[in-house]
Protein backbone atom coordinates (compact mmCIF):
# COMPACT_ATOMS: atom_id res chain seq x y z
CA UNK A 1 0.00 0.00 0.00
CA UNK A 2 2.87 2.32 0.81
CA UNK A 3 4.42 1.73 -2.58
CA UNK A 4 1.11 2.29 -4.33
CA UNK A 5 0.59 5.61 -2.57
CA UNK A 6 4.09 6.54 -3.45
CA UNK A 7 3.64 5.87 -7.14
CA UNK A 8 1.01 8.61 -7.37
CA UNK A 9 3.73 11.16 -6.72
CA UNK A 10 5.15 13.37 -9.43
CA UNK A 11 8.73 12.42 -8.74
CA UNK A 12 9.54 8.75 -8.12
CA UNK A 13 9.34 8.41 -4.38
CA UNK A 14 10.73 5.69 -2.19
CA UNK A 15 8.64 3.46 0.01
CA UNK A 16 7.63 4.70 3.38
CA UNK A 17 6.71 8.10 2.05
CA UNK A 18 3.38 9.77 1.99
CA UNK A 19 2.32 12.06 -0.83
CA UNK A 20 0.66 15.22 0.30
CA UNK A 21 -1.26 17.45 -2.10
CA UNK A 22 2.03 19.19 -2.87
CA UNK A 23 4.33 17.34 -5.24
CA UNK A 24 6.98 16.74 -2.56
CA UNK A 25 6.53 13.56 -0.55
CA UNK A 26 7.81 13.27 2.98
CA UNK A 27 9.87 10.44 4.36
CA UNK A 28 8.38 8.61 7.31
CA UNK A 29 9.80 7.24 10.50
CA UNK A 30 9.49 3.51 11.18
CA UNK A 31 8.50 2.94 14.77
CA UNK A 32 7.16 -0.21 16.37
CA UNK A 33 6.31 -1.80 13.04
CA UNK A 34 4.58 1.24 11.54
CA UNK A 35 5.57 3.88 9.01
CA UNK A 36 4.51 7.08 10.72
CA UNK A 37 4.50 10.78 9.90
CA UNK A 38 6.79 12.78 12.12
CA UNK A 39 5.27 15.57 14.19
CA UNK A 40 8.46 17.60 13.88
CA UNK A 41 8.55 21.17 12.65
CA UNK A 42 12.08 20.71 11.27
CA UNK A 43 12.57 19.14 7.85
CA UNK A 44 15.56 18.55 5.61
CA UNK A 45 15.17 18.78 1.83
CA UNK A 46 16.60 15.89 -0.19
CA UNK A 47 17.59 16.91 -3.72
CA UNK A 48 18.10 14.93 -6.88
CA UNK A 49 21.80 15.71 -7.40
CA UNK A 50 21.37 15.69 -11.18
CA UNK A 51 18.78 18.49 -11.15
CA UNK A 52 18.73 19.86 -7.60
CA UNK A 53 14.96 19.44 -7.50
CA UNK A 54 13.59 18.50 -4.08
CA UNK A 55 12.46 14.87 -4.14
CA UNK A 56 11.48 14.40 -0.52
CA UNK A 57 11.57 16.06 2.88
CA UNK A 58 13.16 14.18 5.76
CA UNK A 59 12.06 14.86 9.32
CA UNK A 60 14.43 15.64 12.13
CA UNK A 61 12.71 13.23 14.50
CA UNK A 62 11.58 14.77 17.77
CA UNK A 63 12.96 13.60 21.10
CA UNK A 64 9.66 11.85 21.86
CA UNK A 65 9.78 10.00 18.53
CA UNK A 66 13.38 8.89 19.06
CA UNK A 67 12.52 7.77 22.57
CA UNK A 68 9.54 5.80 21.26
CA UNK A 69 11.84 4.15 18.71
CA UNK A 70 14.51 3.07 21.18
CA UNK A 71 11.89 1.92 23.70
CA UNK A 72 10.30 -0.17 20.98
CA UNK A 73 13.66 -1.83 20.18
CA UNK A 74 14.27 -2.44 23.88
CA UNK A 75 10.82 -4.01 24.40
CA UNK A 76 11.23 -6.27 21.38
CA UNK A 77 14.60 -7.63 22.49
CA UNK A 78 13.44 -10.24 25.00
CA UNK A 79 11.17 -12.08 22.57
CA UNK A 80 13.42 -11.68 19.54
CA UNK A 81 16.55 -12.92 21.28
CA UNK A 82 14.53 -15.88 22.50
CA UNK A 83 13.22 -16.70 19.02
CA UNK A 84 14.88 -19.84 17.69
CA UNK A 85 17.92 -19.24 15.55
CA UNK A 86 16.27 -21.26 12.76
CA UNK A 87 13.26 -18.92 12.74
CA UNK A 88 15.53 -15.88 12.57
CA UNK A 89 17.48 -17.53 9.77
CA UNK A 90 14.25 -18.22 7.83
CA UNK A 91 13.29 -14.55 7.94
CA UNK A 92 16.65 -13.51 6.51
CA UNK A 93 16.49 -16.24 3.86
CA UNK A 94 13.18 -14.74 2.76
CA UNK A 95 14.64 -11.24 3.03
CA UNK A 96 17.53 -11.94 0.67
CA UNK A 97 15.03 -13.12 -1.96
CA UNK A 98 12.91 -9.99 -1.52
CA UNK A 99 15.97 -7.79 -1.98
CA UNK A 100 16.85 -9.66 -5.18
CA UNK A 101 13.28 -9.27 -6.45
CA UNK A 102 13.32 -5.52 -5.73
CA UNK A 103 16.91 -4.75 -6.72
CA UNK A 104 15.96 -2.45 -9.58
CA UNK A 105 13.45 -0.47 -7.49
CA UNK A 106 16.02 0.08 -4.76
CA UNK A 107 18.61 1.10 -7.37
CA UNK A 108 16.20 3.66 -8.86
CA UNK A 109 15.77 5.31 -5.48
CA UNK A 110 19.53 5.39 -4.97
CA UNK A 111 20.09 7.07 -8.33
CA UNK A 112 17.32 9.57 -7.65
CA UNK A 113 18.66 10.65 -4.26
CA UNK A 114 22.37 9.93 -4.46
CA UNK A 115 23.09 10.44 -8.15
CA UNK A 116 25.21 7.39 -9.00
CA UNK A 117 24.52 5.51 -12.23
CA UNK A 118 21.77 2.89 -12.18
CA UNK A 119 24.26 0.08 -12.87
CA UNK A 120 26.42 1.25 -9.99
CA UNK A 121 23.36 1.60 -7.76
CA UNK A 122 22.53 -2.05 -8.45
CA UNK A 123 26.09 -2.87 -7.39
CA UNK A 124 25.44 -0.92 -4.17
CA UNK A 125 22.42 -3.14 -3.44
CA UNK A 126 24.20 -6.30 -4.56
CA UNK A 127 27.17 -5.85 -2.24
CA UNK A 128 24.75 -5.34 0.66
CA UNK A 129 22.70 -8.34 -0.42
CA UNK A 130 25.82 -10.49 -0.14
CA UNK A 131 26.04 -9.58 3.54
CA UNK A 132 22.41 -10.60 4.02
CA UNK A 133 23.14 -13.90 2.29
CA UNK A 134 26.14 -14.44 4.52
CA UNK A 135 24.10 -13.63 7.62
CA UNK A 136 21.90 -16.63 6.72
CA UNK A 137 24.85 -18.83 7.76
CA UNK A 138 24.22 -17.71 11.32
CA UNK A 139 23.60 -21.29 12.45
CA UNK A 140 27.28 -22.00 11.85
CA UNK A 141 28.70 -18.55 12.50
CA UNK A 142 27.18 -18.22 15.97
CA UNK A 143 28.40 -21.57 17.24
CA UNK A 144 30.35 -21.50 20.45
CA UNK A 145 33.24 -23.71 21.55
CA UNK A 146 33.32 -26.78 23.74
CA UNK A 147 36.01 -28.63 25.58
CA UNK A 148 34.97 -31.77 27.40
CA UNK A 149 36.73 -33.15 30.50
CA UNK A 150 38.81 -30.11 31.33
CA UNK A 151 39.19 -31.84 34.66
CA UNK A 152 37.43 -34.74 36.23
CA UNK A 153 33.69 -34.71 35.47
CA UNK A 154 33.92 -31.13 34.23
CA UNK A 155 33.16 -29.67 30.79
CA UNK A 156 33.37 -26.13 29.44
CA UNK A 157 31.34 -24.67 26.63
CA UNK A 158 30.59 -21.22 25.29
CA UNK A 159 27.53 -19.55 23.82
CA UNK A 160 27.50 -16.48 21.62
CA UNK A 161 24.60 -14.35 22.80
CA UNK A 162 23.13 -11.11 21.46
CA UNK A 163 23.85 -7.82 23.20
CA UNK A 164 20.51 -5.99 23.19
CA UNK A 165 19.65 -2.88 21.19
CA UNK A 166 22.29 -2.02 18.58
CA UNK A 167 22.34 1.13 16.48
CA UNK A 168 23.73 2.19 13.13
CA UNK A 169 24.56 5.61 11.66
CA UNK A 170 25.23 5.56 7.92
CA UNK A 171 26.70 7.87 5.24
CA UNK A 172 25.28 9.07 1.92
CA UNK A 173 27.56 7.29 -0.50
CA UNK A 174 26.20 3.72 -0.21
CA UNK A 175 22.53 4.14 0.70
CA UNK A 176 21.83 0.36 0.57
CA UNK A 177 25.13 -1.44 1.12
CA UNK A 178 26.16 0.23 4.34
CA UNK A 179 22.85 -0.15 6.22
CA UNK A 180 23.02 -3.78 5.04
CA UNK A 181 26.51 -4.13 6.56
CA UNK A 182 24.85 -3.44 9.88
CA UNK A 183 21.30 -4.49 10.77
CA UNK A 184 21.10 -7.95 9.12
CA UNK A 185 24.09 -9.34 11.00
CA UNK A 186 23.02 -7.68 14.22
CA UNK A 187 19.43 -8.90 14.00
CA UNK A 188 20.08 -12.44 12.82
CA UNK A 189 22.20 -12.81 15.98
CA UNK A 190 19.14 -11.85 18.05
CA UNK A 191 19.75 -8.14 18.64
CA UNK A 192 17.17 -5.49 17.91
CA UNK A 193 18.12 -2.43 15.91
CA UNK A 194 17.82 1.33 15.69
CA UNK A 195 18.91 2.73 12.33
CA UNK A 196 19.64 6.33 11.46
CA UNK A 197 20.24 6.47 7.71
CA UNK A 198 21.96 9.38 6.06
CA UNK A 199 19.47 12.25 5.99
CA UNK A 200 20.64 12.91 2.43
CA UNK A 201 19.60 9.51 1.01
CA UNK A 202 16.91 7.98 3.23
CA UNK A 203 14.84 6.24 0.53
CA UNK A 204 16.80 3.03 -0.02
CA UNK A 205 16.97 2.33 3.71
CA UNK A 206 13.21 2.83 4.03
CA UNK A 207 12.48 0.39 1.23
CA UNK A 208 14.92 -2.12 2.70
CA UNK A 209 13.13 -1.89 6.03
CA UNK A 210 9.76 -2.32 4.30
CA UNK A 211 11.07 -5.48 2.66
CA UNK A 212 12.32 -6.75 6.00
CA UNK A 213 8.86 -6.24 7.40
CA UNK A 214 7.45 -8.17 4.44
CA UNK A 215 9.92 -10.95 5.22
CA UNK A 216 8.20 -11.35 8.59
CA UNK A 217 10.33 -9.47 11.09
CA UNK A 218 8.36 -8.82 14.32
CA UNK A 219 7.29 -5.28 15.21
CA UNK A 220 9.87 -3.34 17.19
CA UNK A 221 12.87 -5.42 16.19
CA UNK A 222 13.98 -2.63 13.85
CA UNK A 223 13.15 1.05 14.19
CA UNK A 224 14.25 3.92 11.96
CA UNK A 225 14.74 7.53 13.00
CA UNK A 226 15.91 10.40 10.84
CA UNK A 227 17.94 13.49 11.56
CA UNK A 228 21.41 14.96 11.74
CA UNK A 229 23.73 15.33 14.70
CA UNK A 230 20.87 15.56 17.24
CA UNK A 231 19.80 12.04 16.27
CA UNK A 232 23.42 10.87 16.47
CA UNK A 233 23.77 12.44 19.92
CA UNK A 234 20.59 10.73 21.03
CA UNK A 235 21.94 7.35 19.93
CA UNK A 236 25.34 7.96 21.51
CA UNK A 237 23.86 8.97 24.86
CA UNK A 238 21.07 6.43 25.22
CA UNK A 239 21.73 3.84 27.92
CA UNK A 240 19.68 1.12 26.19
CA UNK A 241 22.07 1.03 23.23
CA UNK A 242 24.77 -1.58 23.63
CA UNK A 243 26.68 -1.20 20.34
CA UNK A 244 27.02 1.62 17.83
CA UNK A 245 28.17 1.24 14.25
CA UNK A 246 29.19 4.38 12.43
CA UNK A 247 30.32 4.89 8.85
CA UNK A 248 31.13 8.38 7.62
CA UNK A 249 33.69 11.14 7.66
CA UNK A 250 36.43 11.45 10.29
CA UNK A 251 34.96 14.76 11.34
CA UNK A 252 31.52 13.33 12.16
CA UNK A 253 33.04 10.17 13.66
CA UNK A 254 34.54 12.26 16.43
CA UNK A 255 31.12 12.84 17.92
CA UNK A 256 30.27 9.21 18.79
CA UNK A 257 33.84 8.87 20.12
CA UNK A 258 33.67 12.02 22.21
CA UNK A 259 30.31 11.01 23.68
CA UNK A 260 31.45 7.57 24.70
CA UNK A 261 34.59 8.40 26.59
CA UNK A 262 33.90 5.74 29.20
CA UNK A 263 33.84 3.05 26.50
CA UNK A 264 30.52 1.83 27.89
CA UNK A 265 29.39 0.29 24.61
CA UNK A 266 30.88 -1.38 21.60
CA UNK A 267 31.82 0.77 18.65
CA UNK A 268 32.92 0.16 15.12
CA UNK A 269 33.61 3.19 13.04
CA UNK A 270 34.69 3.11 9.40
CA UNK A 271 35.89 6.52 8.32
CA UNK A 272 37.60 8.59 5.64
CA UNK A 273 40.24 7.39 3.22
CA UNK A 274 43.02 8.23 0.80
CA UNK A 275 43.68 5.10 -1.23
CA UNK A 276 46.88 4.75 -3.24
CA UNK A 277 47.39 2.64 -6.34
CA UNK A 278 51.05 1.85 -6.95
CA UNK A 279 51.85 1.30 -10.62
CA UNK A 280 55.06 -0.62 -11.29
CA UNK A 281 56.67 -0.30 -14.73
CA UNK A 282 56.29 -4.08 -15.27
CA UNK A 283 52.49 -3.96 -14.82
CA UNK A 284 50.11 -4.99 -17.60
CA UNK A 285 49.67 -1.50 -19.02
CA UNK A 286 46.27 -1.94 -20.64
CA UNK A 287 44.64 -3.52 -17.59
CA UNK A 288 46.25 -1.11 -15.18
CA UNK A 289 45.19 2.04 -16.98
CA UNK A 290 41.60 0.82 -17.32
CA UNK A 291 41.47 -0.30 -13.70
CA UNK A 292 42.90 2.99 -12.45
CA UNK A 293 40.39 5.04 -14.41
CA UNK A 294 37.44 2.89 -13.29
CA UNK A 295 38.49 2.95 -9.65
CA UNK A 296 39.29 6.66 -9.51
CA UNK A 297 36.21 8.00 -11.31
CA UNK A 298 33.49 5.37 -10.74
CA UNK A 299 30.63 6.67 -8.56
CA UNK A 300 32.14 10.14 -9.22
CA UNK A 301 34.90 9.23 -6.76
CA UNK A 302 32.39 9.13 -3.89
CA UNK A 303 33.53 5.74 -2.64
CA UNK A 304 35.55 5.23 0.51
CA UNK A 305 37.56 2.69 -1.50
CA UNK A 306 37.99 4.89 -4.60
CA UNK A 307 41.55 4.71 -5.85
CA UNK A 308 42.05 8.45 -5.67
CA UNK A 309 45.83 8.56 -5.69
CA UNK A 310 48.15 6.94 -8.23
CA UNK A 311 51.82 6.48 -7.44
CA UNK A 312 53.74 5.88 -10.66
CA UNK A 313 57.04 4.13 -10.05
CA UNK A 314 59.99 4.65 -12.41
CA UNK A 315 59.16 4.35 -16.10
CA UNK A 316 55.41 4.00 -15.40
CA UNK A 317 55.28 7.80 -15.31
CA UNK A 318 55.42 7.73 -19.12
CA UNK A 319 51.86 6.31 -19.14
CA UNK A 320 50.27 9.59 -18.08
CA UNK A 321 49.08 10.68 -21.55
CA UNK A 322 47.19 7.40 -22.07
CA UNK A 323 45.69 7.70 -18.60
CA UNK A 324 44.33 11.14 -19.45
CA UNK A 325 43.04 9.93 -22.79
CA UNK A 326 41.04 7.13 -21.19
CA UNK A 327 39.62 9.31 -18.43
CA UNK A 328 38.58 11.91 -20.96
CA UNK A 329 36.34 9.38 -22.73
CA UNK A 330 34.07 8.84 -19.71
CA UNK A 331 30.55 10.11 -20.17
CA UNK A 332 29.32 12.54 -17.54
CA UNK A 333 25.55 12.77 -17.19
CA UNK A 334 22.63 11.93 -14.89
CA UNK A 335 22.85 8.44 -13.45
CA UNK A 336 19.60 7.29 -15.07
CA UNK A 337 20.75 8.23 -18.58
CA UNK A 338 21.98 5.55 -20.95
CA UNK A 339 25.74 5.25 -21.11
CA UNK A 340 26.40 7.39 -18.04
CA UNK A 341 29.79 6.68 -16.47
CA UNK A 342 29.93 9.52 -13.97
CA UNK A 343 26.89 10.97 -12.24
CA UNK A 344 26.73 14.15 -10.18
CA UNK A 345 28.21 14.82 -6.76
CA UNK A 346 25.83 14.72 -3.83
CA UNK A 347 25.40 18.50 -3.39
CA UNK A 348 26.46 21.91 -4.69
CA UNK A 349 28.52 22.23 -1.50
CA UNK A 350 30.37 18.99 -2.27
CA UNK A 351 31.03 20.24 -5.80
CA UNK A 352 32.38 23.56 -4.55
CA UNK A 353 34.64 21.77 -2.07
CA UNK A 354 36.05 19.43 -4.73
CA UNK A 355 36.70 22.36 -7.09
CA UNK A 356 38.44 24.31 -4.33
CA UNK A 357 40.73 21.39 -3.51
CA UNK A 358 41.63 21.02 -7.18
CA UNK A 359 42.40 24.74 -7.32
CA UNK A 360 44.55 24.50 -4.20
CA UNK A 361 46.58 21.78 -5.95
CA UNK A 362 47.14 24.06 -8.94
CA UNK A 363 48.16 26.93 -6.69
CA UNK A 364 50.59 24.71 -4.80
CA UNK A 365 52.32 23.67 -8.01
CA UNK A 366 50.54 20.56 -9.33
CA UNK A 367 49.79 20.25 -13.06
CA UNK A 368 46.16 20.07 -14.13
CA UNK A 369 46.23 17.48 -16.91
CA UNK A 370 42.46 17.13 -17.13
CA UNK A 371 40.00 19.66 -15.71
CA UNK A 372 36.39 18.57 -15.21
CA UNK A 373 35.32 21.51 -13.09
CA UNK A 374 33.39 23.33 -15.79
CA UNK A 375 31.79 20.33 -17.41
CA UNK A 376 28.47 21.14 -19.11
CA UNK A 377 25.82 18.43 -19.06
CA UNK A 378 23.07 19.03 -21.58
CA UNK A 379 19.62 18.92 -20.01
CA UNK A 380 21.09 18.87 -16.48
CA UNK A 381 22.51 22.36 -16.22
CA UNK A 382 21.63 22.61 -12.51
CA UNK A 383 23.27 19.33 -11.53
CA UNK A 384 26.35 19.01 -9.33
CA UNK A 385 28.56 17.56 -12.04
CA UNK A 386 32.34 17.47 -12.08
CA UNK A 387 34.04 15.66 -14.92
CA UNK A 388 37.11 13.47 -14.54
CA UNK A 389 40.01 15.56 -13.28
CA UNK A 390 43.69 14.61 -13.10
CA UNK A 391 46.38 16.48 -11.20
CA UNK A 392 49.97 15.32 -11.71
CA UNK A 393 53.15 16.36 -9.95
CA UNK A 394 51.32 16.21 -6.62
CA UNK A 395 53.45 16.24 -3.45
CA UNK A 396 52.46 14.84 -0.03
CA UNK A 397 52.51 18.32 1.54
CA UNK A 398 49.78 19.67 -0.76
CA UNK A 399 46.28 20.24 0.64
CA UNK A 400 44.71 18.20 -2.17
CA UNK A 401 46.76 15.24 -0.88
CA UNK A 402 46.35 15.73 2.86
CA UNK A 403 42.54 16.04 2.62
CA UNK A 404 40.07 13.47 1.36
CA UNK A 405 38.63 14.93 -1.87
CA UNK A 406 35.68 12.54 -2.40
CA UNK A 407 35.13 13.51 -6.02
CA UNK A 408 36.19 12.40 -9.52
CA UNK A 409 39.75 13.61 -9.06
CA UNK A 410 42.84 11.46 -9.52
CA UNK A 411 46.05 12.71 -7.93
CA UNK A 412 49.26 11.45 -9.50
CA UNK A 413 52.49 11.25 -7.51
CA UNK A 414 55.78 9.78 -8.59
CA UNK A 415 58.25 7.51 -6.79
CA UNK A 416 61.68 6.34 -7.90
CA UNK A 417 61.40 2.93 -6.22
CA UNK A 418 58.85 0.63 -4.59
CA UNK A 419 60.44 1.39 -1.20
CA UNK A 420 59.83 5.10 -1.73
CA UNK A 421 56.19 4.41 -2.63
CA UNK A 422 55.66 2.23 0.46
CA UNK A 423 57.30 4.83 2.66
CA UNK A 424 55.00 7.56 1.32
CA UNK A 425 51.84 5.48 1.78
CA UNK A 426 52.76 4.40 5.28
CA UNK A 427 53.21 8.06 6.26
CA UNK A 428 49.67 8.88 5.11
CA UNK A 429 47.33 8.76 8.13
CA UNK A 430 44.59 6.76 6.38
CA UNK A 431 44.60 2.98 5.94
CA UNK A 432 41.42 1.98 4.18
CA UNK A 433 42.60 0.38 0.94
CA UNK A 434 45.46 0.25 -1.52
CA UNK A 435 46.46 -1.63 -4.66
CA UNK A 436 49.62 -2.55 -6.48
CA UNK A 437 49.78 -3.24 -10.21
CA UNK A 438 52.65 -5.52 -11.17
CA UNK A 439 53.47 -8.77 -12.97
CA UNK A 440 56.21 -9.63 -10.47
CA UNK A 441 55.19 -11.91 -7.61
CA UNK A 442 58.08 -10.91 -5.37
CA UNK A 443 57.22 -7.22 -5.78
CA UNK A 444 53.58 -7.95 -4.96
CA UNK A 445 54.55 -9.99 -1.92
CA UNK A 446 56.89 -7.31 -0.60
CA UNK A 447 54.17 -4.70 -1.02
CA UNK A 448 51.42 -6.69 0.67
CA UNK A 449 53.74 -7.40 3.63
CA UNK A 450 55.22 -3.95 4.09
CA UNK A 451 52.36 -1.59 3.32
CA UNK A 452 50.50 -0.54 6.47
CA UNK A 453 46.98 -0.49 5.01
CA UNK A 454 44.12 -2.76 6.06
CA UNK A 455 42.89 -3.89 2.63
CA UNK A 456 45.38 -4.58 -0.16
CA UNK A 457 44.71 -5.46 -3.79
CA UNK A 458 47.22 -7.11 -6.09
CA UNK A 459 46.08 -6.17 -9.59
CA UNK A 460 42.68 -5.57 -7.95
CA UNK A 461 41.97 -1.83 -7.77
CA UNK A 462 39.17 -1.85 -5.17
CA UNK A 463 39.88 -4.76 -2.82
CA UNK A 464 36.65 -4.77 -0.82
CA UNK A 465 36.47 -8.16 0.88
CA UNK A 466 33.44 -10.39 0.36
CA UNK A 467 31.27 -10.91 3.43
CA UNK A 468 32.84 -14.22 4.50
CA UNK A 469 35.84 -12.00 5.28
CA UNK A 470 35.54 -8.63 7.03
CA UNK A 471 35.96 -5.01 5.93
CA UNK A 472 39.32 -4.33 7.52
CA UNK A 473 40.24 -0.69 6.93
CA UNK A 474 42.90 0.38 9.43
CA UNK A 475 44.72 3.33 11.05
CA UNK A 476 42.93 6.66 10.42
CA UNK A 477 40.19 4.92 8.44
CA UNK A 478 38.94 2.82 11.34
CA UNK A 479 38.30 3.12 15.04
CA UNK A 480 36.62 0.52 17.16
CA UNK A 481 36.49 -2.94 18.53
CA UNK A 482 36.09 -5.26 15.55
CA UNK A 483 35.40 -4.72 11.86
CA UNK A 484 32.22 -4.86 9.83
CA UNK A 485 30.64 -8.14 8.67
CA UNK A 486 32.18 -11.62 8.35
CA UNK A 487 33.32 -13.36 11.53
CA UNK A 488 34.29 -10.02 13.04
CA UNK A 489 30.73 -8.78 12.51
CA UNK A 490 29.44 -11.77 14.46
CA UNK A 491 31.94 -11.09 17.25
CA UNK A 492 30.88 -7.44 17.32
CA UNK A 493 27.20 -8.24 17.72
CA UNK A 494 27.55 -11.05 20.27
CA UNK A 495 28.98 -11.55 23.71
CA UNK A 496 30.42 -14.82 24.88
CA UNK A 497 29.08 -16.69 27.88
CA UNK A 498 31.31 -19.48 29.13
CA UNK A 499 29.74 -22.28 31.13
CA UNK A 500 31.81 -24.66 33.22
CA UNK A 501 29.80 -27.56 34.55
CA UNK A 502 30.52 -30.50 36.75
CA UNK A 503 28.36 -33.60 36.97
CA UNK A 504 29.68 -36.12 39.45
CA UNK A 505 28.61 -39.65 40.13
CA UNK A 506 26.96 -40.06 43.55
CA UNK A 507 29.95 -41.90 45.01
CA UNK A 508 32.43 -39.06 44.38
CA UNK A 509 30.65 -36.42 46.48
CA UNK A 510 32.96 -33.88 48.20
CA UNK A 511 33.58 -34.69 51.81
CA UNK A 512 34.97 -31.26 52.86
CA UNK A 513 35.00 -27.66 51.49
CA UNK A 514 37.73 -26.89 48.95
CA UNK A 515 39.24 -23.60 50.18
CA UNK A 516 42.29 -23.38 47.93
CA UNK A 517 42.44 -22.66 44.20
CA UNK A 518 42.38 -25.94 42.30
CA UNK A 519 45.81 -26.73 40.83
P1 LIG B 1 29.18 12.28 7.15
O1 LIG B 1 30.21 12.10 8.19
O2 LIG B 1 28.81 13.65 6.74
O3 LIG B 1 27.82 11.58 7.62
C1 LIG B 1 27.79 10.26 8.13
C2 LIG B 1 26.70 10.17 9.18
O4 LIG B 1 27.08 11.01 10.29
C3 LIG B 1 25.34 10.65 8.70
O5 LIG B 1 24.35 9.79 9.17
C4 LIG B 1 25.21 12.05 9.29
O6 LIG B 1 23.89 12.39 9.62
C5 LIG B 1 26.05 11.96 10.54
N1 LIG B 1 26.72 13.25 10.84
C6 LIG B 1 27.15 14.18 9.95
N2 LIG B 1 27.73 15.20 10.60
C7 LIG B 1 27.66 14.93 11.91
C8 LIG B 1 28.09 15.59 13.08
N3 LIG B 1 28.69 16.77 13.04
N4 LIG B 1 27.86 14.99 14.26
C9 LIG B 1 27.27 13.79 14.32
N5 LIG B 1 26.83 13.12 13.24
C10 LIG B 1 27.03 13.67 12.05
O7 LIG B 1 29.66 11.40 5.92
P2 LIG B 1 29.07 11.39 4.47
O8 LIG B 1 29.47 12.67 3.80
O9 LIG B 1 27.65 11.02 4.51
O10 LIG B 1 29.90 10.18 3.83
C11 LIG B 1 31.16 10.33 3.24
C12 LIG B 1 32.27 9.98 4.20
O11 LIG B 1 32.10 8.66 4.68
C13 LIG B 1 33.64 9.99 3.54
O12 LIG B 1 34.57 10.52 4.44
C14 LIG B 1 33.92 8.51 3.28
O13 LIG B 1 35.29 8.17 3.18
C15 LIG B 1 33.30 7.91 4.48
N6 LIG B 1 32.98 6.51 4.25
C16 LIG B 1 33.81 5.57 4.77
C17 LIG B 1 33.57 4.24 4.54
C18 LIG B 1 34.49 3.19 5.07
O14 LIG B 1 34.14 2.03 5.02
N7 LIG B 1 35.66 3.55 5.57
C19 LIG B 1 32.46 3.85 3.78
C20 LIG B 1 31.63 4.85 3.26
C21 LIG B 1 31.89 6.18 3.51
TrEMBL record:
Its EC number is 1.2.1.27. Residues 252-281 are annotated as: Disordered. InterPro entries: Ald_DH/histidinol_DH, Ald_DH_C, Ald_DH_CS_CYS, Ald_DH_N, Aldehyde_DH_dom, MeMal-semiAld_DH. It catalyses: 3-oxopropanoate + NAD(+) + CoA + H2O = hydrogencarbonate + acetyl-CoA + NADH + H(+); 2-methyl-3-oxopropanoate + NAD(+) + CoA + H2O = propanoyl-CoA + hydrogencarbonate + NADH + H(+); (R)-2-methyl-3-oxopropanoate + NAD(+) + CoA + H2O = propanoyl-CoA + hydrogencarbonate + NADH + H(+); (S)-2-methyl-3-oxopropanoate + NAD(+) + CoA + H2O = propanoyl-CoA + hydrogencarbonate + NADH + H(+). Keywords: NAD, Oxidoreductase. Signal peptide: none annotated. It holds the Pfam family Aldedh. One of its GO terms (biological process) is L-valine catabolic process. GO terms for cellular component: mitochondrion. It is an enzyme of class 1 (oxidoreductase). Residues 257-269 have a biased composition (Basic and acidic residues). CDD domains: ALDH_F6_MMSDH. GO terms for molecular function: methylmalonate-semialdehyde dehydrogenase (acylating, NAD) activity. Residues 35-499 form the Aldehyde dehydrogenase domain. Coiled coil: none annotated. PANTHER family: MALONATE-SEMIALDEHYDE DEHYDROGENASE, METHYLMALONATE-SEMIALDEHYDE DEHYDROGENASE [ACYLATING], MITOCHONDRIAL. Belongs to the aldehyde dehydrogenase family. This is Methylmalonate-semialdehyde/malonate-semialdehyde dehydrogenase [acylating], mitochondrial. The lineage of its organism: Eukaryota, Metazoa, Chordata, Craniata, Vertebrata.
Amino acid sequence: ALLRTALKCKTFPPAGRLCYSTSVPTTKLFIDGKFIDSKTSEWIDVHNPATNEVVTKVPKATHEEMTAAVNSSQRAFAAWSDTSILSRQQIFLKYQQLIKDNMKEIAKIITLEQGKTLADAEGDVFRGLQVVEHSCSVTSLMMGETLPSITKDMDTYTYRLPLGVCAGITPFNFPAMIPLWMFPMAMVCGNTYLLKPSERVPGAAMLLVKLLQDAGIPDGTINVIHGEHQAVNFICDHPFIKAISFVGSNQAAQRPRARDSGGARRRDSSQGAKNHGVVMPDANKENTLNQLVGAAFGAAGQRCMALSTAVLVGEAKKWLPQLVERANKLKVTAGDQAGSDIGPLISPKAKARVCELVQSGVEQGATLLLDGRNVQVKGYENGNFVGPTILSGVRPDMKCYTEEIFGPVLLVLEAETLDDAIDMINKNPYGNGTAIFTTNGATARKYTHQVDVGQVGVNVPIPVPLPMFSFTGSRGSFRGDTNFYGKQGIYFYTQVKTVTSQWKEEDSTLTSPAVVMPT
